[in-house]
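Entry 14. Ran structure prediction on the chain below.
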Amino acid sequence: MMDIIHDSMFIQCSIIFITGLVFSKLAKMVKLPAVTGYLVGGLLLGPFVLNLVTADSVDTLAIFSDIALAFIAFNIGSEFKLSYFKKVGMAPIVIACFESLFAVLFVLVVLLLTNHELRFSLMLSAIAAATAPAATIMVIKQYKANGPVTKTLLSVVAIDDATALILFGFALAITNSLSSGSGNLLMMLLSPIIEVVVSLIIGTIMGLILSYAIRFYKDDLRVPLIIAVLLLTLGLSEFFDASSLLVCMVLGAIFCNLSNEADKTMNIIDGITPSLFMMFFVLSGAELNVSILPSIGLVGIIYVVFRIVGKYIGAYVGAKLSKARENVCRYIGPCLIPQAGVAIGLSLVAQSMVPEFGSTIRAVILCGTLIYELIGPFVTKRTLVMAKEIKEA
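Output, structure tokens:
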């Protein structure tokens, strides 16, 4: 029986969707977000538990995950309306900077206080800045969350990608100078800023193209147009070594501010993306390896706990300094727990910079991803309920 399943990609894709459908119902029964159900279901059917979907299949289907992330980032960007920023000012930017910086500093200080090597501590703590927007967006969409905390959260998780890249770039440059005492320190400091600028340029150009082209197509042809533009955007991001998440966010932001058809188009997209998101999160769950949990030790505990503490306190301080509403100050921090793709990507860079600590960094980040992705959606839901932005049935 297993041979039949493993030999057919169609059967494995069917199992992925069946798992998503079943576990979303189970999650609803115990009042958990659907995304948690998808992740748990994927974890069970994946190569590290039941092996109904093999590791090779997960790799083969990774393109769907990239497309789903592009749609998620595009969706986040569409919330970046200038009218909103005129109303709230600089608050989301200030909050994003402080929550990212505090997460890094808290992990770094505790690692150093527990006598961990400086270069290792710098590389691991720098990854703490990254936050995964996908799970957060799914919770907001599922429960139709709305209010100042939700709107600020959408902006913060979008800006977070840029702040995380910049902070990691600085840590990378410092670690490199400590390791070799040579190399172009200025270029290493500038490289993450250049990546952000290139991402902004590509996203802006593609946003202008989409805003112009959309007027020539009616409702039924707008979806393939957006798919074509997003795929082209992903390709350009890859070619120019830009952040695909940031590029697609900027694309969405430009489109929603320039096109009169944006709201209508986003409603059409909302009708086609649930299946893509379901596959993305089930596959994400299949990649989670529970067997590595015992290997993280004290370092893993420090990273998992103090990243959350740093995010919470940093978001609170940033919200207070920017004079955000009291509800935003209190509830924005706990919604920033999820961490996934960007962090895993940065861990690979960190491995190459400090190879003697590579396996430890990789294990900690993968374990952190497992924990954050499983508890993050539930915490986000409960927090938005407490903020009275989700009506609990």
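The chain has 19 helices and no strands. Will compare against last week's run tomorrow.
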